[in-house]
Amino acid sequence: MEGRVPEDLAVVVDADGAIMVWSDGARRLLGYEPAELVGRPVVDLLAARLPESTRRHAAEGRRWAGEVALRHRDGNRVVVRLQGTPLLDAEGRRLWLVTGTVPVYTAAPADHGALPLWDLTLAQLPVPVAVYDRDARLVAANEIMTEVMGRSEEEMKGLTLWEIEPNPPFDAYDRLQREVLRTGELIFHEEHGKAPGEIRPHAWSMFMSPLKDETGAVQGMSATVFDTTEQYWARRRLAVLNEASLRIGSTLDVTRTAEEMAEVAVAGGFADFVTVDLLESVALGDEPEQLPPDTPVTLRRTAQRSVLEGCPESVVAPGSTTRYPVGTLPLRTLAAGRGARHRPGDPELREWLVASPGRAESVSRHLIHSVMMVPLRARGVTLGLVHFLRHRTPDPFSEDDLLLAEDIVARAAVSVDNARRFTRERRTALALQRSLLPERLPKLAAMDLAYRYLPTGAGADIGGDWFDVIPLSGARVALVVGDVVGHGIHASATMGRLRTAVRTLADVDLAPDELLTQLDDLVIRLDREEGPEARGAEEASGQVGATCLYAVYDPVSRRCTMARAGHPPPALVTPDGGVRFLDLPAGPPLGLGGLPFEAVEVQLEENSLLALYTDGLIEAPGHDLEIGTALLRQALGSPAGTLEETCDQVLHTLLAGRPTDDVVLMLARTAVLDAGKVRTWQLPPDPAAVARARKMAGEQLAEWGLAEAEFATELIVSELVTNALRYGGAPIELRLIRDATLICEVSDGSSTAPHLRRARVFDEGGRGLLLVAQLAERWGTRQTPTGKTIWTEQALPAGV
Questions:
Q1: SS3 sequence of 409-452
Q2: H or E, element range at 396
Q3: Are 515 and 550 in contact (CB under 8 A)?
Q4: CA dist list (Å): 704 to 35, 476, 678, 742
Q5: Those residues with Cβ within 8 angstroms of residue 214's Cβ, 6 or more apart along the chain or in another chain
Q6: With contact defined as beta carbons under 8 Å apart, do 387 and 315 qualify?
Q7: Residue 664 and residue 227: Cα distance in Å, rounded?
Q8: What whole-number distance in Å separates Cα of residue 582 and Cα of residue 610?
Q9: How far apart are CA 736 and CA 729, in angstroms?
Q10: Can you give the C-alpha Rg of the chain in angstroms?
Q11: Contact yes or no for 324/306 (Cβ under 8 A)
Q12: Nearest CA to 277 among 211, 226, 230, 324?
């Protein structure tokens, strides 16, 4: 109850703030005689700053009231409840009449037997509350606080928090309390751990508030504690779920994705041991098989993680298979498609454990007390089963934990399924690409060859890089390197079509610039024919495109004719070790249309080295094009022995890690055909030249030791020279080449190509080319700058 002392204070203050009237009650209350104070500023009596509201009201000339600390004549401080009333003097100036009393708080009558309502409120608050004095010693604590601390109020009174509980983290709390008492500022602190006598981790929030008197001086502090355990665990679950979203699925690898899920669950404190078993087909990246009823299922242990080093709880090694027999709990969980939690004492789980002595022994040895099994399902298909176990965490899994586990597994399942689909598509694309590339390089007299083909192991699937080596007529050889725009199966299929087209056009013996022109038209037709339906609605026209380099080397003349369509230029290493990049017109990429290609002819010395490659080699993430070109020059300029060793040296120099794009590198060391293996004759446009040509050819074959081939070769020469005289024109040339096969070539000045036709019974001609086709293994025609050349190839006799 509130009471007052009989001394009523009355003071009049003038407009300048000086005391005009000092009452007898004021004298008795503060000890000052009127003569001591009249005329003095009233602020001399203040022991503390006026409250903000009092100063504001006084400045505005309004009535005010509040408790004010005044200074007694003996130096003590007296708190007085004052009231100020504005007045006006005879001149209209404002005066203040200040009256007041001393407030006194007394207890209720003892016979009521009750504490003041405020004390009752503190004592009965449903949260722990404690009050400490200016020395941080406990003054009072409510009942809940005594329960939390495990001591009675009487035991703790007069002690600091560190004296009450001399163990961490109470030393930190004690320091925080002293900081509150020193600064007078409220401190909010959050903590989680085990409270005294508890085995389950708890979380709590503490408000440490200063207790100030009417002057603002800190007289003590209060500590209020709120149990936030449920909020803490909810935040922990949310953090685990958020971590799962961020970490699971960082790669398109099935095994790594499963490992990430296990790592998130254990590292986040959610489970002490996690295993991920996937259906064998899923682990291999294939379509998941159906789960037939009443049939055992074999799964592969894809990932596992434990709070204990080495996963000692596991009875199945990673990568090994495990079998779920019919009627067992894991198989029923898989079939149900829903997660479930169990204790080792549950009959179903006990039956599963007893079936495996190793599993039962592990549960007993590690004191595993709670288990959850959650099926891994995505897009309506079961992919595997995840086990969550606890043995170091004392709490069993709750329903909330099961919901969280299902959320984690659901997110991981989508990532696993994406990785599985990626693995399958990449394997399919890689198989398609490899099937379309040459299995082995042909053995050629024109050059020695070596290559490296590296499909990318990351990114958006493999690309459409390709290379080819095509033997041509006259012992010549064509080298091809290309790169299709895009990645995946579509790019691989396009690559296959372009490679087939290049081989077909090469058989026609088109010049490199003409071949690229024909290939450009083909790419444009492919783009128009496929449209967005074949590529996907989101892709626009113009997505089918490629770059290509086509080179033809003649080991007889040592001339190499090249043209490129937007492809990186080849590098040439001369026999003396010099390295330069050939200055070929770049040409437009295939698929633009309307722009010309230009061929360049280069004379190569014997043992020159040509390096053909795709941009994935020189445009690696660690360096730009200029640096890549410089590194390639450096790698090729350093002697490395064989071509195979040179290939390895180039890759080691340019590729620091796994390539991010397909890489093709092809090295060709040129050779020159021995002059003794080539014989050429110029023939006059005279019918008598046929017999002469036949005779010269027979003599040359005898000189080469190929007498067995004389008859067939003479017939071929006779027919081809006769056709050249009859349908062609000067100049006429006969050339024999002894290479891996016996090559016969007849050139004339006409560009008209011959063709086979059916001769009737009474026709006098029309059988020549048919006869040639029967005698030769291969035959064909090619255009030359002066006309055409008809060529044949015959197998050499055995043993030659």
A1: HHHHHHHHHHHHHHHHHHHHHHHHHHHHCCCCCCCCCCEEEEEE
A2: none
A3: yes
A4: 149, 21, 11, 11
A5: 48, 67, 69, 79
A6: no
A7: 65
A8: 10
A9: 20
A10: 49
A11: no
A12: 324
Please state which of the ranges 75-84, 106-115, 295-304, 432-441 shows the lowest mean pLDDT: 106-115
Whats the size of the chain, residue-wise? 800
Query: CB–CB of 646/450 below 8 Å?
Result: yes
23 alpha carbon, distance to own chain's centre: 85
Spatial distance between the Cα atoms of 497 and 432, rounded to a whole number of angstroms: 12
The neighbour count for residue 16, using CB atoms within 10 Å, is 9
> In this structure, are residues 794 and 704 in contact, taking their beta carbons and an 8 Å threshold?
no
CA distance 464 to 484: 5
The alpha-helical segments, DSSP class H, found in 655-798 are 689-704, 710-727, 768-775
In this structure, what token pair is assigned to residue 37? Answer: 């104070």
- d(Cα 739, Cα 472) in Å, to the nearest integer? 12
Q: What is the pLDDT of residues 103-147, one digit of tens each?
A: 654 444 444 444 466 667 777 778 899 999 999 999 999 988 888
264, 247 Cβ separation under 8 angstroms: yes
8 Å CB contact between 666 and 479 = yes
**Residues 538-569: pLDDT tens digits?**
444 445 688 999 999 999 999 999 999 999 99
CA 99 to CA 113: how far, in whole Å? 36
Q: Which two tokens stand for residue 312?
A: 């000692």
Place of tokens 């770059």: 547
In angstroms, the CA 750 to CA 511 distance is 17
Name the pTM for this structure.
Answer: 0.55
Q: Is 249 left (phi over 0), alpha (psi -120 to 50) or beta?
A: left
> What are the C-alpha distances in Å from 637 to residues 207, 634, 646, 704, 742?
74, 5, 10, 40, 37
Q: 397 φ, ψ to 5°?
A: -65, 140
CA–CA gap between residue 630 and residue 412 (Å, rounded): 44
Beta bridge partners of 78: 70
Quickly count: other Cβ atoms within 10 Å of residue 141's Cβ.
25
Q: Residue type at 82?
A: L
In the chain, the percentage of residues whose pLDDT exceeds 70 is 88
Q: Are the beta carbons of 224 and 209 closer than 8 angstroms?
A: yes
3-class secondary structure for 507-526?
Answer: HCCCCHHHHHHHHHHHHHHH
Q: How many angstroms separate the first and last alpha carbons of the chain?
A: 130
**Judging by beta carbons within 10 Å of its beta carbon (0-12, 13-18, 19+), is residue 180 exposed, middle or buried?**
buried
d(CA 735, CA 742): 11
- Residue listed under structure tokens 């909010």: 188
